[in-house]
Each structure stands twice: as C-alpha cells, then as structure tokens.
Amino acid sequence: MEAIARLAPDTPAHVDALNEQAHRLRHEDTRAALALGREALATALRIDYQHGLAYGLLRVALCQHLLAIEPERCLAHLSQGIGLFEALGDARGAGEAVNLLANIHAARNDYTPALELYQRSLVLRRQLGDRVGEAGTLNNMGLVFRQTAQFADALKYLLMSLEVAEAAEDLRAAAYALTNIGGVLADLGDSTHALQYHLRGLTLIRQTDDRAHEGSTLASLGRLLTQTGHHAEALEHLQQALQLAQRAGNLGDTGAALLGLGLAHQHAGDHGRAERLLLEALSLVRRTANRVVEAEVLLALGRNRWLQGEAGPGIELLDHALSMARDLQADHVAGRLHQLLSQVHEQAGRFDLALREFKAFYQCQQRISGQDNQRRIRALLGRAELERAHRDAEHQRLRGDELATALDAARESERQKQALLAQLAQQSDMLRQLAREDGLTGLANRRWLDAQWAHECERARRYQHALAVAMVDIDHFKSINDRFSHRVGDEVLRRVARLLRDSCRRGDVVGRYGGEEFMVVLVETPVDLAAAACEKLRQRIAALPLGDLHPDLKGVTVSIGLAGTETDPVDADLIAEADRQLYRAKAEGRDRLCR
What we know:
Blueprint (H helix, E strand, L loop, with lengths): L1 H5 L5 H14 L4 H18 L2 H18 L3 H18 L2 H17 L3 H18 L2 H17 L3 H17 L3 H17 L3 H15 L5 H17 L3 H18 L2 H17 L3 H18 L2 H17 L3 H17 L3 H17 L3 H19 L1 H33 L2 H29 L11 H18 L3 E8 L2 H8 L1 H18 L5 E6 L2 E7 L3 H16 L15 E8 L8 H14 L5 E2 L1
Parallel strand pairs: 4-5
Antiparallel strand pairs: 1-3, 1-4, 2-3
Helix pairs in contact: 2-3, 2-4, 3-4, 4-5, 4-6, 5-6, 6-7, 6-8, 7-8, 8-9, 8-10, 9-10, 9-20, 10-11, 10-12, 11-12, 12-13, 12-14, 13-14, 14-15, 14-16, 15-16, 16-17, 16-18, 17-18, 18-19, 20-21, 23-24
C-alpha cells in the first residue's frame, strides 16, 4: 500500500498498482481487494485508461463473486471486461476473465455453459503458453465433473492439472489439484489415499501466501477426518478453516467450513450445536446459489433432526434435498440421501419404502462405482504415479550427470534405478489396494467378495430374504498345470470364470475365492432353487469344450458345496457350512454338488 501511495494519482501506473494489489489480496482479504478494484476502475474511467479499466472490471467481478454480492453487476462487469480484453488483443486477460465467467456458471450449477467457457479459456491459455492458467482451468473442469459424480472424468482433468502445475513449478496450482484429487477419492470412499493427497496439498499450500486455499483444504480435510472417526483433529482443522474463510470473506468457503463443523458436532452427538451451525451454513450457501452444496447441507440437517427424534421434519428436508440432487445429476449426494431415507423408513416400520430407497441407493452406487469407472480410475491413478516416478528418476539422473564423475554417475544411475523400482513397487501396492477384481479372471477378488458378502448378509437380515452361497472348486486342477502347463491352467480358470459370470443373474455375486476356488452368492434365493441353479452350473462346466487348449485336455469337472438359509444369515455361518459341503463333495468322489 505504501508503494501505491508513492505513485502519482490519476496515472496508468497508479491504476496498474491498484489492480495488482487487488489481485494479490483477492483470497486473503476479499473486501479490501474489492475496494482497491473499485478505486482502480473509477480512476481508469476518469483518465480513459482502457487496459486498466479491463483489469479493474475483472478484479471487481471476482470479488463480487467470492463475496456473493451484486450478482447481476458482477456478470455485467465481467461481460464488459471480456469485450475490452478482446478489443485490446489481450489474450491473457481474456483467458482469465472467461475462466472466471465459467466459475460463476459452475457455482450456479450451470454445467454445460461452464464447460464450454472452460474450453474457450483453455485454448487461450495454451496459445499463450500460460501453464499456470492452464492448470487452473483444467482443475476447474475437474471440479465440474466431480459435482456431477463423473469421478473418472474428474480425476482425468485434475491429474492433467497436477502434471501441468508441477511442470510449471507452481506450488499453489499443484496444491489445488492435489486437494481436489483427495476430494474425489474421498467421494469414492478411498479415505486412505484421500488423506495422503490432502496432506500433500496442505504441505504445498502452506509454502505460499494463499491462506484462503489453506482454509478450504483444512475444511475438506476436517470432513474426511470426521468420517474416519478422528473427531478432535477434525474440529481443530475445521475451526482453523472457518477463521481463514471469515477473514477472507469468501462465503462459499465459510459455508463449507460451517457444514464441516456441523457434521463434526453431529457425529459427536451434540445435535443442538450441529443444528445451529448447519442452519448458518444453509443461509450462506443459498446466497452463493450452489445447489449441490445446499443439498449436502439439507442432508446433514435432515439427518440431525431425525437423530433428535423429529422424523417428519427430517424427511421433508431429505426429500427436498433429493429432488435437488436428482435435478443436478449429483449421484454421490443422491445416493447418501436414499441410504438415509431407507434407514428412516425402516425405523418407522415402512419396509416397502425402505426397500425402495435402498434399491435407489444401490443404483446410485452402481452408476458411480461401476466396473468401467473403476478400471478408468485405477488406470489414471496408476499412470500418474508411474509418470511421477519417471520424472523424479530423470531429475535425479540429470543432477547426477552435472555433479559427478563418470563413476559417480554410474553409481547415481544405479541408485535412481533402485528408487524407481521402489516407487513402482509402491504404486503396484496402491493399485492392488484399489482393485476390486481378480487380475486373471476379471471376477471380484477375495477382498471385494468379503465386503459384498457382509453387505448381502445384512440386506437379507433386514428384509428377511433367503440367501445362499456356493463354493465351486475345479477338480484335479493341479494336474492340469502339471500336465499341460500353467498357461493352459490359467486359460481354464478364465473360461470357468466366464461361464460362471455369464450363467448367474445380474444381482448375484461371483468371484474368485482363491486358487481354483470360486464363490457364488445367490441373493434372494431359497436353498432348493440355489441347488438347482448350481447343478446346472456343474453340468455346463463339465460340458465346457477345452480341446483347443490341448488335444489331451477333454474337459474339467467341479465340486460344489452349497449352504443357505431363509432365516438369519448373519447368525448362520454359511461360508463355513458351504466349505464343509465342498469337502464332502470332494471326499465322495468329486464332480458333484453337496448341500
């Protein structure tokens, strides 16, 4: 401010300094930045300084957007600014202004025009070689896809943003991308990796002067810690987030921090305090016109009232939130609403409504976490980690070439190779943790089977459905590997797996339990009907043609152990019983079903 005071008033240099200071303060103290932008705007008009006028319009519009005030004047300022930038041939200013206009549309959940404007901004910024601006626009595009639960596309753009930001060595842009990647992983339920990305983002942003983004990162991290049961840490982060957001004056960030605090107190059982915080969050969020966040606040309020015994008012809020989430195609919010409504109706004895809501919840989960999406997400994350490892290794190699003799360079190369191998091993571990399917057969793996089994048991108990489970083991499989090779054995496993998957119903769960053993969960199926279905499976496998794999391989047979119940699958250890029946089938000569 002292530097501005030393400049002669009513000069282009004075206007430029005002605009630059407004830009620097935009996230730290938005109200002060707005005052500076308005002063720059008025001075530029008075001296007819068109370049300063264009940037003044942009600075004022940004502050109006962050403070959620004067929405129509904000759009008018921005429209006039874009026109001036284009007339002046200032592609950098135009790219920034178009990106802001896209942000405004995105905040109002107008996603189609937002994406069109982001594409326009991206072209301008790439033509200029503005790598930091390009990273910002890619980040914003990823956030639009996150809002509409298109998580694979969200990760695609956020990872692109991170790559560009790291290449430009811009800590702030990289921190934004890392935090938002963590947010997507949290939406997908991967809290472990979500936490890692949040912490990486927080470390970077604290090396900059952007306290506003530090606050939004702390708010997101606080919600994640609440979900994982770390209440004390969550409250500490959320209180810091609220203070930073209020200091900056950003209504969106303030509303997000209040929502996080409300959820934290709700999880801790302080429903009265949670109610006050959530109502305050709702008031602020409605001023920003972000209906996805508004639906999240209504979800939290509805749950809070239900937990306090106010089921009727709670359901009204949840139904209203669900209508908004459906309109916005926000399946990640709609799914949570359906799940909670199912619990509310079940508690009230409205089992038909509970079942309807649970089915809707399951459909939302399928759209979000379908196998195609999971494959894309795993591939994106895996490729990003691998490229990061290569970049780090290359950086180390170049540094070694510059600083070492030929012998030192050789030693450094070996060290780099070992570091790369360690990074690749770490990335491989991450992919294995993320994977839900068996790599050889494409069926569900053991970890996912266990999760699905627990889910189906609970669902059967809740709705009093029959449930059956079959353990299917290929007979004499070791001899296939020994006589015909492991390659042939692997193909036999794949073909049996494909037959099992194609022969079972869409709602059944089929997976590789281990080795040559498969597990089939027959949902809502009495044991007699399950036995008939399993006998057909046994016969089809026995008829499976395998002669093309090896002339002496005429076919394979399977032994099947089956267990089922029509009462309470949680109390009955069905998997252990199915295993006992499988051993019995083996003992009695194989190629048979026992139950």
